[in-house]
Each structure stands twice: as C-alpha cells, then as structure tokens.
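[Primary structure, fold]
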Amino acid sequence: MSAINRDLKLSYLSRQLASPDTQRKTANWDVWCCADSIYNHHYDREVSFLVQAGAAVIQLSTGESVDVAPGDFVTIQPGVSGQWHISAPLENRFCYHDGFDIANRRQPTSLPEGQSHGE
C-alpha cells in the first residue's frame, strides 16, 4: 500500500509527511498542546512543527484552509495569521527558526589558504 500524499507547498506554508529523519531531528523540540476548539495565532517568526497527535484545520488569513494530522511536518512563514479549528486535541513538537541552537553556536569555517567562501 502506498502512503497518502500530504505534500502542500504555498509561498507562506508547506506541509509534508515527516520522514523518519525529520522525526528524529525534532525529538527534542518543545511541545505545544491545545484542546481548545478554536485557537487564533499570528506568526511573527518562521516556525516548523511536527503533529504528534490530534487534528485541526487552520484557516489562514490568506483565505486557504490547511488540515493537519499526525505525521505532518509544517512550516509557516512570518506575517500569516491563522485560526485553528481543532477537532481532536493537538500535540505538536515545534521550533522557531531563529531559535535553532546549532545555528547560534555555529562558528565560521576556516578554509585553506588562498580559498574564499565564494569559491
């Protein structure tokens, strides 16, 4: 049996089924749970999340509606607002992209003499 295609690519949102590698990489992300039937949020930073449990439809300020279900990996760009219509209590692992610890600790790489990063 083939997997259901969950791929969705918009300029301000993407959704796809999380690969085993993505699931592993998100294992230590913060967890957000919500059992409210409606939740409103304005995204002022880029965020990615992996749906662990539950189901919802996000009504975006752009007019589109996007459903999310367990296994979905979603990234939302800043500037979008959404009203979540939650049909089953949600549990998501999430990370704001400006909060990636590894990026904050990354040091510039030294190159051999005579080479530049533009080469």
